[in-house]
Design a protein that fits this description.
Number of helices: 12
Mean pLDDT: 85
Helix content: over 70%
Number of domains: 1
Strand content: under 5%
CATH superfamily: MetI-like
CATH architecture: Orthogonal Bundle
Shape: elongated
CATH class: Mainly Alpha
């Protein structure tokens, strides 16, 4: 690279860094998601107590800042005397794992269908459109409740059900962006150079639609976490005694009028995580939209 080109590169980098810092939603969302991710990864070392240890002598101990609270249980204890902070930390692991694995499963299905339909067109595209339309006509919550209710709740089943039901947005976005890219010059040049269709899809199409799919992934991750919490709240999600935030809210509803903090703590945690993911997705969309317009 010549010296004359270096100032231009540094200017572009500085411009993008400034644009990133000005996008407060992206920065705040990234901080929230990053913090929850670190808590989920290092949960066993951060949790002050065993989240499954029952101590009935400490049941419904209030948080440390409330009257009767104990610094040994900073967020109090639940109806079985289990440390709430430890269960909240382990609940972050469950929410993040379910969100990430659901996005991976649904992303693989939806992206594959969308890219194939958008690139090949014709009957392949008709089949993809039909499958996507059929999926959109199915109520996600109702089907998830039915399947989990019939087969029994389990951690793996929740991920599979959500992954098989949340692929439609990936398919729609992948199909539309692939249709825009398939007639561009660099794709035609790769075809003329003798590249196979598989190579074109993997090397030319997928890298150029990855940014759009990343935005979809953040939105689907937030939706998967909310759906898992809803299923757990109804008793059809992650089975007890796993500390799912939705299950913690369900177990606390009987005590919400006498000890409101038992439902507020996991509820606020769930709200903050979903808010952070949505802010991150909106910020990525704004950043990518600005870049694509240049």
């Amino acid at each position: 690279m010549s010296e004359a080109a270096l100032p231009g590169v540094s200017t572009v980098v500085a411009r993008r860094r400034g644009r990133l810092l000005r996008n407060s939603g992206l920065v705040l969302g990234g901080l929230i998601v990053g913090l929850v991710t670190l808590v989920a990864i290092f949960g066993p070392w951060l949790a002050p107590h065993d989240p499954f240890a029952i101590d009935l002598s400490r049941r419904l101990v209030p948080p440390a800042w409330m009257e009767g609270g104990d610094p040994g249980n900073p967020l109090g204890a639940d109806q079985l005397g289990r440390d709430y902070l430890s269960r909240l930390i382990y609940g972050a692991r469950i929410s993040m794992v379910i969100g990430v694995l659901t996005v991976i499963t649904s992303g693989l299905i939806g992206t594959t269908l969308g890219v194939l339909g958008g690139y090949f067109g014709g009957r392949v595209d008709d089949a993809v459109v039909f499958a996507t339309t059929a999926r959109l006509s199915i109520p996600v919550v109702l089907v998830a409740l039915t399947v989990v209710g019939l087969m029994g709740s389990s951690f793996t089943l929740v991920i599979l059900v959500l992954g098989l039901l949340l692929w439609d947005r990936f398919a729609v976005v992948a199909r539309s962006t692939t249709m825009q890219l398939r007639n561009l010059d660099y794709v035609a040049a790769a075809w003329c150079a003798g590249c196979s269709r598989t190579a074109i899809l993997l090397r030319e199409i997928l890298p150029n639609i990855a940014s759009h799919l990343a935005v979809v992934a953040t939105l689907e991750m937030a939706l998967a976490i909310l759906l898992e919490a809803a299923l757990s709240f109804l008793g059809l999600g992650v089975p007890a005694p796993l500390p799912s935030w939705g299950l913690m809210i369900a177990e606390a509803k009987e005590y919400m009028f006498f000890s409101p903090w038992v439902i507020m703590v996991p509820g606020i945690a769930l709200f903050v995580l979903v808010l952070g993911i949505n802010l991150l997705g909106d910020g990525l969309r704004d950043m990518l939209g600005t870049d694509l317009s240049r």
